[in-house]
Design a protein that fits this description.
Distance between the termini: 41 Å
Structural class: alpha/beta
Helix content: 40-55%
Number of strands: 8
Strand order of the largest sheet: 2-4-3-8
Amino acid sequence: MLVENGTIKVGDRQRELDSVNVGNLKQSILTKGLLHPPVVVKSDTDPDKPYTLVAGFHRLTAMGKLHEEKQAFSYNDAPVPDGMIPVSFLGDLSAADILEAELEENIIRLEIPWQDRARAIAKIHSLRVQENPHHTLSATAHELATKSGDERNERNVRREVRNATILADNL
């Protein structure tokens, strides 16, 4: 479902806005499309903002900035019209249920086990080398560090890529 940008009420959030994360999300949305839309409920408290954000503050902010910058992006392999925001709707929820849903969105996440992370990094590097035989570990590390917002630790990411390519064959 698409709603107009600016029609979603954003109340007090449990998590502060992280501008680095917003920048990373913008880049990800531009290169891969929106993977998971923000979650909203219908609200009748403000006719100008008929929806209330439940989860996805960083995604909503990233899409708003993309619209401001006139940068096109997609969702479900289709272009998102200028000024529109893809959303998922929840049913009628109490105020407590809305806060609980936001909390669950933020804390019920499975951290990827180190073995799966190593396999994924090694596979990404392997595919990059298939695309370009001159692609280096450093290039993969730079790409991953930049996209994760961890550019200051690029040396650590390079070490992680190198270790992942060695470990992946033994996992």
